[in-house]
Write a structure and sequence with these properties.
single chain, alpha+beta, CBS domain Like, 7-stranded mixed sheet, binds zinc ion
């Protein structure tokens, strides 16, 4: 299912004679939909927004993919934070969190990792870049670029979970001659000011101010929307993969099989006769 919110977008830009590119995004609509039916501590809601903004910005650097998955995981109270981006701009995300301590300190989470998976689609490769999670998601994304892409990057993730605002800016240094001073000028330009002022600023007006003598080109914004790929068919396939014995055991104790999609909270229910039909159909195929 998908919800459209025409205000969500990712837009990339580049300088004509400098090895420097970037992107900006707003994912308020997707963020609000992701938060709509879930109960999560404020710090986790904030992180969910950040990982979605980070992924939307990252998508501008990937040409060939069917699905991008950015996830942070740990052995601590924040077990999983995951965002997905599909070609066409569909996005979804969720967090799995446990414990009584409502604050999440990324720096002290045990076995904390950040991974970007690029899924090229059916029958093709899938590759993953993995790094240790840093103190913040911003630092982690910048470290990901240095370690996995061998290119410096700058991220500014601007999220207000209370207001349902999520947006950001990103810069990437490309191979070629760009002085440290030029890099510092560009990143310094995006680092100043309040989140609100930067989110409201018109990029056509302020990006050319960074290097007044170099042309900057903005590509057309690509619309983004909430999209979940769950379906009854996928749930049935998952149950078949689990095996008849295990599903029958759950059925015996629970009375029915109930599977809730962690991304969109859609509930899929199968009663005893539907479960029987499912495994009968599976057997007929063999
Ligand atoms: Zn779903």
């Amino acid at each position: 299912m998908s919800d459209t919110n025409s205000s969500d977008f990712v837009q990339s830009f580049y300088w004509e004679s400098l090895p420097l590119r970037g992107a900006r995004c707003r994912v308020d609509g997707v963020f609000q939909r992701v938060l709509r039916d879930v109960q999560l501590p404020h710090s986790v809601r904030q992180l969910l927004g950040e990982i979605m903004v980070g992924l939307a910005l990252l998508s501008s650097t990937q040409k060939h993919f069917e699905r991008l998955i950015l996830q942070a995981q740990s052995g601590g109270n924040l077990q999983l934070l995951v965002a997905e981006f599909l070609t066409g701009g569909g996005m979804r995300a969720y967090a799995r969190w446990r414990g009584d301590d409502e604050s999440v300190d990324l720096a002290t989470l045990p076995e904390a990792l950040l991974a970007l998976t690029v899924d090229m689609g059916l029958d093709r490769d899938r590759y993953q870049g993995l790094i240790q999670l840093r103190q913040t998601l911003t630092q982690s994304l910048e470290a990901y670029f240095l370690e996995s892409v061998q290119a410096p990057a700058y991220f500014r993730l601007m999220v207000d979970a209370e207001q349902g605002i999520a947006g950001g800016y990103f810069l990437q240094r490309l191979p070629g001659v760009l002085t440290t001073e030029e890099w510092n000028t560009a990143t310094g330009f995006l680092a100043v000011g309040s989140d609100r002022s930067l989110l409201l600023a018109q990029p056509e007006q302020f990006l050319p101010e960074i290097f007044p003598n170099v042309g900057v080109r903005l590509r057309a914004p690509e619309p983004l929307q909430f999209q979940c790929s769950c379906s009854r068919e996928r749930v049935e396939r998952m149950l078949i993969a689990l095996g008849e014995t295990e599903v029958e055991e759950t059925l015996a104790t629970e009375g029915s099989i109930q599977v809730t999609c962690e991304y969109c909270q859609t509930v899929y229910r199968l009663d005893a006769s539907e479960v029987a039909a499912l495994f009968a159909a599976g057997k007929a195929l063999h």
